[in-house]
Amino acid sequence: MISQAANSATRTVDVIVIGAGHSGMAMSHRLTELAVEHVVIERGSVANSWRHERWDSLRLLTPNWQLRLPGQAYEGTDPDGYLTMPELIRFLDRYAGRLAVPLFTNTKVLAVRPQAGGYRVETDLDDWWCRAVVIATGANNRQSIPPCASAIPETVTQLSSLEYRNPGQLPRGGVLVVGASASGLQLAEEIHRSGRPVTLAVGEHVRLPRIYRGMDIQWWMHAVGVLDERYDQVDDLRRVRHVPSPQLIGTPEHRTLDLNSLTAQGVRLVGKLANVRDGQAQFSGSLRNVCDLADLKMNRLLDRVDQWIDVIANGNAGEPPERFEPTRTPEQNRLGLDLSSGEVSSVVWATGMHPDYHWLDVPVLDRKGHLKHDGGVVDAPGLYALGLPFMRRRKSTFIHGAEDDVRDLAHHLHAWLGATAAGFHSLRMAG
Fold it and tell me: In Å, what is the CA distance from 133 to each residue of 22, 48, 374, 392, 401?
């Protein structure tokens, strides 16, 4: 039962979940099963980021058969397809409708501070005191735009992937898309097809085929155990957590989108954007090396799939092994581009995103602003996180990864609440 403290306007509850995206709602579902008193606070509407911060044509990178949350799974007629954003929002709205918990939407969290053995959560409507907080605001709150963006001429329009909706937002003329993860490739292709010449600045990336040996690459990564690899089983966790999203696209044709398909359409490749000086964009000369490394890592994964088929399936797969053409790069790297010449009228930043913890007044951030946590158990009593890349498993990045993460963290949280129950009840009685 949610209560109001006797001598103040502060409301009291065991657990506050911040964020009503898929991770926050999945945690709410599990906490309800465990009979843990909690509320969910959301700055906008349910699935706010999916609803308001994605481009119009976006589809999920994962096939529909992978779409599930605790208590709800995909039930449509196209399990091998990929949901559009309106379809995903309807899925999440239905899920939210099943939650038997107070859900406070359009409520902005202003601060979270330690107080009296728990946390004070200040919002623009009410203040709360709780024993534990689950940060389920995700990893995609702010665009990671390099400082050199400030040196781009004012005549050039700039949009981040959070702001971009469709090519109609851009003026006519050439476009520089910066970043070659899934977002960068999809935006580069869409903008090029609108009739605008596109230059794509390519840094580190993950190349994958959409279909391999007759099955979606996500099916193989699940089968061979890649998606279930745990955070405590990898050597360089910090690096793994910052690997770009794979170059994939969800289309009815199940087609592969990679740098070769873009250059075949006429998109021009350059190296990673290194700097902007005096109106000149400067690019790294390591394009060839970066692409070779991505090809090598892709082939290592395909080798692993082939070995799994040989051992587990006795070599019986629908189609034989194959290897894809190495990434083609220009014979002469273009190392500069005059942004004041009129050749480029827009820059679209697809340079990744990061969490926003400006409201978190708890000493749990490292010097780069990253949350210090051990598989989602934050470095402060009663503080937890959800929805971060490779948080507990490689699949934590995807919607279906929340199921196992929530099970683990809800168990930990429930045990922690039980261990601290006596002290909590003393505080509540004193209030």
Answer: 17, 20, 15, 18, 20
